[in-house]
Amino acid sequence: MLEARDLTIKYGHRTAVDNVSMSLEPGVVTAVIGPNGAGKSTLLRSLNGSLMPNSGTIHLNEKPLAKFSRRAIAKQITVVAQEAELRFPVTVLEYVLGGRFVWVNSTTWGWESEHDLQVAESVLAATELRDLSSRMMNELSGGERQRAVLARALATEAPILLLDEPTANLDLSHQATLLGLVRERCNTQSCSALVITHDVNLAAQFADIILLMKAGKVVKAGTTKQVLVPDLLREVFSVDVLVDAHPISGVPRVTPVH
Amino acid sequence: MTSSRQGNRNRVTLRRTLITLLVLLVALVIVVGAASLLGSERLPVSNSLCALTTLGTRQCGLTSDQFDILFQIRLPRILLAAAVGGSLATAGASYQALLRNPLAEPYLLGVSNGAAVGTMLALLFFGSLEWSRPLMAFAGALVATLAVYRLARGRVGATPERLILAGVIVTTFLSSVIVFVTTLMDATRIRSFTFWLLGDLSGANTSLLPVPIAVAIIGAIILTLNARSLNLLMLGERDAFDLGVEVGRVRMTIFLVASLLVGSSVAASGSVGYVGLVVPHLTRLSVGSDNRITIPSATIGGALFVIIADTIARTVIAPRELPVGAITALIGAPLFIYLLKRV
Amino acid sequence: MFFSSSRPSKTVALLLLTLMSASACSRSSAVLNNPSTHTRRMLDDAGREVFLPDRVDRVISLAPNLTEIVFAVGAGRRLVGDTTYCDYPIEAKTIEKVGDTQHPNLERIIALRPQVVLVSTASQLEVFTEQLRNHDIAVFITDPHDLEGVFRSIEQVGEIVGNAEQATALVSMLRGRAAAVDNALKQSPRIRTFYQLSAEPLYTAGHDSFVTDLLKRAGADSVTANVPGAWPKYSAESALAARPDAIILPTGGSMGEGNGTVAKALAASPAAKTGRVYKINDDHLVRPGPRAVDGLEEMARALHPEAFKR
Q: Which end of chain B has less Cβ packing within 10 Å, N or C?
């Protein structure tokens, strides 16, 4: 379980995250939505220890995050971010095996074991990349690369997933598949997930909790029905919306009104 | 990590790594042997081979002069060439992985010139103390590295592009310092300094020979132990951090060890160029980019490269000698152009 | 002048004016090159025709050996500039410095208004000859490769400064000393010798070096006499295999106290083992000037002590 209390993070004079408290429980998918500059990515980055908060605390399993070593954190928390530069050639399999870094130990002389390979194979299957496993990463399409990034994060077997706009480059079918995969993981293996997304409806479909952020503050945290309310959405996004229920699933559906 | 060729090559395993290294080591032994038979003085082949294989315990019919030439002059020089080549190639390969830039190499990053300035200061002020040279070279390399890092660190952090840029600035500045210092020297010293600055392995028969050899081996081992971290760092510092790499610690280790490698090479033989650039590239083309195999292979590859270059340098206009750096540049530059075209 | 208000014509006019004055300048410099005052014509060692005034009062030397020669022919007072390395005789140190042999300061040379500049290698030539010629300064190149060449340089300098008699007398005297050495060594066998210019890296005297001639005259069989070049970097193996019976270490002059020990490759040579390692003042060996005969005598005495016992 990952918990943040009274978190404040500043860049110089600008306050990016303002006194935010939230927690990620096992089995719960939390979506973070809000306009650009709301502090969503900053919050995510602080949760895995990349950014030091100016004030406030983060606790992982009741212990302060600062007391964990890098490896220990990486075993518990994994990040799916926008994929980085690929300056050196690497195959999909090797890329995904990178997620096994914290698990490969001295008994195998620093080389991947059979178990590591099995884990890699299974996440590749889950993300529908098995056929592409020996292709070069830079030969893949944007969407395929994004799935490889998720596959690598899943390969770490960390129970807490932090995803920063994981569906940005994906087509409709893969958007649903990817988030469905995250959802399923959290259901079956009790992992927690934090998903930053611009797609409010996608968030509504897959998330248990939604954090609505603006200018560094959490304006509202709650279930989709509690958060996806026209007044709140207008206050945060400065746009009028119509909220109705999805005809099949009953999940709130947000449509901007022009 | 595999090469950029159409990618159905298998991933690197421990077994493949060991086999590759074994093959390279065998090649190294053969090349050392062959180089020992070549030089400005002709030595009888079978007698020399006999003496070499018995590791100098038996004279095998060589005259005492021939024996001395083989074991006091040639072999130390070949071993120094191996150490220098191995050190520079390993440092180059590590810099390229850490900085995510295939152009990173000790000279471009100012490290070689930093070591050269350190060595020159040692020669000028502590001339008689042999130990001062590798120590001051290491200090110079380290200072240059830190200066480059400081210079490159803006608000965005030391991105690979900024590091290369800062490196070029520092290296050209230090080049001017070197030119300045040499013009202040008298004519005879200038000649020997200029030769040394281009790379000169003739100073191999000193008591300090074990130093560059030990540094090369230990440095290569330490950097190979960090190979997995480097594999992840090659794909982005943030990603590596997220996946559990202690980025700051690894970066500091690479900088320190690489400075040590470059420092000990430059102190012993001046600036031998192109090794840190060309050998890692050739290695990656042959065995792939997984640093677990690339780094140790580059070490042996670098040794082979410089032994061959030095053998040419000391035989082509015998009994005169050319600076080995001239040969590595003559081979390295066209080779690098060719490599650039392929990738 | 045809005045026009349009810009292009003004530019063209300006351009024409510049070109005309430039050609006028070069014409006048051509005149300056052969003024009626420069009637003497001499051929220098680079085969160039050099025009000199009848009387030369102001000379600049761009090499230590040439400075020594100028003083030796009695024209030291007329030396108005020399290099930072010119340190013999002692008066040479007080002469105004115009830079060093490789990088002379052109402005300072011109400011000193010499009539002739003495140069010892042709490599400096392209850099400044044209400029100096425009200022009516003659450049004379000397390039001695052996002792005979030195004698010729002394006579040339003597003629330039108008002290031909003194120069001839000096050359006679030096020739005499060289001949005396030659005589003394008639019965002596040649000694296998290695000339070590520096130990690390190992440099020696090659075929084109001035010292090679001195070594030959001093009764030495220089191991590296036929190696191409003047100061080649030499292979340690070949030095070891050469087994020289004597080693010459130039040191103590401009080189300072360095080069005082034998290179490692020669540590087991017959020369080192029998202690036949001789330190000779390097200024007596590498400066093609009067003191070269000193160097010759010193080497001869060191190598063949028995021939000089009286």
A: C
